TrEMBL record:
Spans traversing the lipid bilayer: 52-69, 75-93
GO terms assigned for molecular function: protein-lysine N-methyltransferase activity
Gene3D superfamilies linked to this entry: Vaccinia Virus protein VP39
Calcium recorded as keyword: no
UniProt-listed SUPFAM superfamilies: S-adenosyl-L-methionine-dependent methyltransferases
GO biological process per UniProt: methylation
Source species of the chain: Methylomonas methanica
Entry keywords, A to Z: Membrane, Methyltransferase, S-adenosyl-L-methionine, Transferase, Transmembrane, Transmembrane helix
Signal peptide: none
Protein's name according to its UniProt entry: Methyltransferase type 12
Amino acid sequence: MQLFKALLSQLLACAAVLGIHTLFPLPISVWQAAAMQACLAALCSRGFRQPVWWLPIHLLFIPTVLLGLSWQVPAWLYLLILLLLTLLFWGTVKGDVPLFLSSSAVSDTLIEIVQSEGAQTFVDIGAGLATVVVPLAKARQDMAVVALERAPLPWLLATWRCRNLTNVRVGRSSFWEQDLREFDVVFAFLSPLVMTKIGEKIRREMRAGCLFVSSSFPIPNSEPESVIELNDRRKTKLYCYRIGRF
Ligand SMILES: C[S@@+](CC[C@H](N)C(=O)[O-])C[C@H]1O[C@@H](n2cnc3c(N)ncnc32)[C@H](O)[C@@H]1O
């Protein structure tokens, strides 16, 4: 659906620029026309209520194609870039959460949280490049850590980064298929779009007294036990939910 909306936004913006140019032949350069198309595509995307991370894609798409044409980039390079982006962002076109990474302040705080919880098991549902999992597993070598990542390239990099950490298991599966019962602390840095469903899943599966920590996105209509505000670049907030009490 998202891919269809993206294509439609691009096509509508192209049609609008061509239409305007036919009706009012302005002396504008191809780059100015591309800039106009990019802005219109971004506007259409917002109109279609695409998630906000589509904006840079719409703004850069046609200008990048033009750049490629003017630099006479070989055709196989487009295919390679497309392949890499697909492996990196895998489910994003279907509306899944894209890859963006937590700061070191997040992993430092999670280390403190698992210590104070006395956690023996931890999972990052959507582990990306294992940015959180690696420092955590190093700091708590007695704790069993699971990293779940569905996109192939991040999963491969996470597996490589965790290759010497015997207390980590990196799984290339969707967290929706993982039973969360076995974990003392569950961490997620996902998207507002999935938080209601995540809330239902953790209520259903996690054991009473365990802790769910969501970076940046709260569970709608649920009261967290605490909210930790970090002093990193994004001013990240960690929403902590005690299972059985929210
Ligand atoms: C915002 S990134 C967070 C990465 C990492 N947890 C961190 O904090 O740095 C979200 C990650 O979740 C992954 N993801 C999205 N949906 C998923 C799913 N259903 N199962 C497993 N991973 C998923 C994405 O591929 C992406 O790498």
